Amino acid sequence: MNRDSQLKDGLTVTGLPAFTDNYLWLLHDHRGHAVAIDPGDAQVVEHGLRQRNLKLVGILVTHHHPDHIGGVAELAEHHHCPVLGPADPRIPMVQQRLVDGDCIQLEQIDMRLRAIHVPGHTLSHLAYVGHGAVFVGDTLFSAGCGRLFEGTPAQMLHSLDLLNALDPATLLFCAHEYTRDNARFALDWEPDNAALRARYRESCQAHQTGTATVPSRLSQERTYNPFLRCDQSTIRERLETSFQRELSTRLEVFTALRQRRNGYVAVHADA
Fold it and tell me: pLDDT, tens digit, for every residue of 78-89?
């Protein structure tokens, strides 16, 4: 099911479900010009464009994984549009290579985004922020964060801190529907967190109805996302009990939490 979110400056974001749990994003204006973000499947994007009578004028990529770039070459060739993304040789179709702080503007759409370098999931990963939204790829999820395939825990924690420093009203557009499993995991470490319990119930209901749980607001994530709450004593104390050792810094807490999440398999009462 497609879902539209209204941003500032008259822009709209449409979420296109793909594969098992991916979201491919279309950012478009009132004139029908669109930018695809992480278009892992060209046919899904083409269908979304036709549904809304949109013209693709650009492609943005956050990182090199196949479910994020699989449709880029076909879309760029068909629509003759530029591809922007990280300076990473594993994404050879990128024509304009971006680094941290770069401003992204395209002639045909009144869009202005800023690139933020957020290593951790991959070393070259970028996020894109603007118009009251941030497109985070696989760095930050609702109630969770991405796996560390290439970066270090210190890099990922710094990247999350950069995202967490954005305006609290910012809408978070992540690339996967992981909220239910993430929230169930988080409850093991903050079982008395009312906001987290509510988010878990909401995500279970969404799972039953096939409704998207994203985007979420950064202000909401701060109340229940454990990877943004590594300074909370409840999380630290429970992890110390789990690992049977003292965790004296936020980085140690984050590292331990991410380690527990890596091997976690969620079991849901509604399953």
Answer: 999 999 999 999
Residues 6+ apart with CB under 8 A from 158: none
188 contacts 232 by C-beta, under 8 angstroms: no
Cα distance between residue 15 and residue 27, in whole Å = 9
pLDDT higher than threshold 50 for residue 1 = no
- Sequence-distant (6+) residues with CB within 8 A of 201 are none
- Known catalytic residues? 63, 65, 67-68, 121, 138, 176
- Cα angle vertex 113, ends 108, 119, to 5°? 135
Contact assessment for residue 64 and residue 115, using Cβ atoms and an 8 Å cutoff: no
Structure tokens at 53: 């009578």
3-state secondary structure of 210: coil
What mean pLDDT is predicted for residues 133-145?
Answer: 98
pTM: 0.97
Q: For residue range 214-238, list pLDDT tens digits in order.
A: 999 999 999 999 999 999 999 999 9
* Superfamily of domain 3-262 in the CATH hierarchy: Ribonuclease Z/Hydroxyacylglutathione hydrolase-like (3.60.15.10)
Domain definitions of the chain by residue range: 3-262
